[in-house]
Amino acid sequence: MATSSRLSRSSRSISSVEALRSGKADLSTAAPEFGRHSIAGVAEQAGVSVATVSRVLNGHDNVRPATRDRVLAAIKASGYRVNELARNLRTAESHLLLTMVPDIGNPFYAEILRGIDSVAHEHGYFMLLCDTGADLGRERSYFDLLRQHRADGAICLDPAAIHQALAEDSDTLPWVACCEFDTSVGVPYVGIDNYTAAGDAVRHLLARGHRRIGLINSADSYLYAQHRELGYLGALCAAGIAPDPRWRMTVTNLDYAAGGAAATALMQLADPPDAVFAVSDTLAIGVIAGLREAGWRVPDDIAVVGFDDISLAAQVDPPLTTIAQPMRELGETAARLLLQRLANPHASVPGVLLPHRLVVRKSA
Amino acid sequence: MATSSRLSRSSRSISSVEALRSGKADLSTAAPEFGRHSIAGVAEQAGVSVATVSRVLNGHDNVRPATRDRVLAAIKASGYRVNELARNLRTAESHLLLTMVPDIGNPFYAEILRGIDSVAHEHGYFMLLCDTGADLGRERSYFDLLRQHRADGAICLDPAAIHQALAEDSDTLPWVACCEFDTSVGVPYVGIDNYTAAGDAVRHLLARGHRRIGLINSADSYLYAQHRELGYLGALCAAGIAPDPRWRMTVTNLDYAAGGAAATALMQLADPPDAVFAVSDTLAIGVIAGLREAGWRVPDDIAVVGFDDISLAAQVDPPLTTIAQPMRELGETAARLLLQRLANPHASVPGVLLPHRLVVRKSA
DNA sequence: TTGAAAGCGCTAACAC
DNA sequence: GTGTTAGCGCTTTCAA
């Protein structure tokens, strides 16, 4: 294929471009008759029993080298692959880890997912990813995957699930919470100290001389939103400032547009803030865009602090000052907690708080 | 465990953070004993045979209503859930669709993923997401999931796989290509006409009076990169312009940083371009950031056109002019093609090209 | 060291 | 309409 794919590039490309234009390339597909062999076939071919093949397959050492070689040869010759479905049924595990994320599109989750994925692979697991859209119904159906034994355990990054945890049997299921968590439920979790982190953001603003500090927050049904609001309030109070309640905006979505809309609303107040703390970088980036559109300069007219430190934060204009969460580590830890719980269902699994840090750039 | 996990947070967190960081948490495997009931238990409880329970479970209509009710009651009372592992073994399908994406972090893929997910769910499938990191080895191991019957089919968004397709048996496996595809291979695909799309981008720049147009492209091992380069070249030639080869930059990564670096390099030429076409929005956003850092104004000093139209494109400063791909539809179509292929392995599945469009904003 | 055989939990013939 | 039963492909005692 190396050679055939290296046919004069231009000629091939052009013809294929033409084929593409028409959009009509017909692809008569051959029958995918994959995996016809079973362990019995291999056994027969190697002149041994299925038990022996199984032993070889699983690397048991009680097989004579000569026998092993014969089996290995038969496997190779037949192109045999283990049917994991059968193996899973037998061993009662799927080696799949369910990950529920509220919004795949939010770059905040991408790095967390990578962390989960890497640890999962290290331990022979695959990640079954589900976008819940923060919808309770869908979430519930995803938990069913656990009940149906289609996944061995779950990592939930989705706030909506947490509250459900108490009400249903989901607390008997093998899952852990990541980022959004309730320490008072018996579910293992990993996250950061949202209260302190939000306080850090606000204290930074305070240190820069801002006194009129707005907050753009998620609905307080989210625990992290509650904690960040408390952190915001706490820092302000400690500085002897009574925050204007009109400066607290609630959004139902963390996307760019929501940030822009909230910022616009904020600046239309008779008495607008001179700084804003948004509880997500995506929100903050939307805020900056909205502000710019309305003719305000950041940080001169109004300072902006975000939360998360997604890779984009450094790229926008002005680069975003934000609270960094250790995203990759958050994901890795969540996966380890879950694996730990699976390995030892009766042991108590700890809750973990990871450190955050303030990253000062130009927006505040 | 609820109580034992309620130990003072600080002390617990610290020790566990250390254990987890080390990655050495020991994971001796024990049997997770959830879901103790089987279909036999339900049958017994309802005073019927397992076959009848199975019939009820699968909604067959040859069951007397009274019997059905009895079974349903028994199911409810026992909290029984189907063991999908067993069902899958029996029916030889997992109802899992594998999706291979080169980089979860690239927002371009997020909307495609949503499209896939929605169609998959509509048809009772779940999406098993794998980040290949554009790595051939990992990709290969993901294809193994198909061979092992752990997934029924796959959607591959990853360039690296395409070339592999010819060389290995992967062309007998049930998969489809999305976004990156080779019309000359017998694999169903969906994508856009990259040649024309790139041409449209360049013609827009031409129409705005630019003549010195640079290109920031992926390595030409990618088919889409080849086609876009051809489109770029074609449009330039048609306008009677001989493009300076030094204005063509190749990046090995589509992230923001790569765009910034390429832009910087471009502008250090003795004779820099006055416009740049980047083959990805993430790249283009990095270009803008890099340019700004170096003191260039967009679009006054240099115009920038991107590709994809991710949601962020409208948020950056200046808002990005770009080629929009119908991302959601791309994903939906890919899923449909795959489902179609699964439903009818012998039918020929078409290749599909979806329309793109130029979105003019302020960067060019 | 190897084999025979019993299931894992389910579906689908095939009987009644 | 309902029950009996034979597997799906594998792992794992238990014997030999």
From TrEMBL, chains A, B:
Pfam families: LacI (PF00356), Peripla_BP_3 (PF13377). InterPro entries: HTH_LacI, LacI/GalR-like_sensor, Lambda_DNA-bd_dom_sf, Peripla_BP_I. The keyword Membrane does not apply. Keywords: DNA-binding, Transcription, Transcription regulation. GO terms for molecular function: DNA-binding transcription factor activity; transcription cis-regulatory region binding. The keyword Nucleotide-binding does not apply. Residues 42-91 form the HTH lacI-type domain. PANTHER family: HTH-TYPE TRANSCRIPTIONAL REGULATOR GALS (PTHR30146:SF109), LACI-RELATED TRANSCRIPTIONAL REPRESSOR (PTHR30146). This is Transcriptional regulator, LacI family. It comes from Paraburkholderia megapolitana. The lineage of its organism: Bacteria, Pseudomonadati, Pseudomonadota, Betaproteobacteria, Burkholderiales.
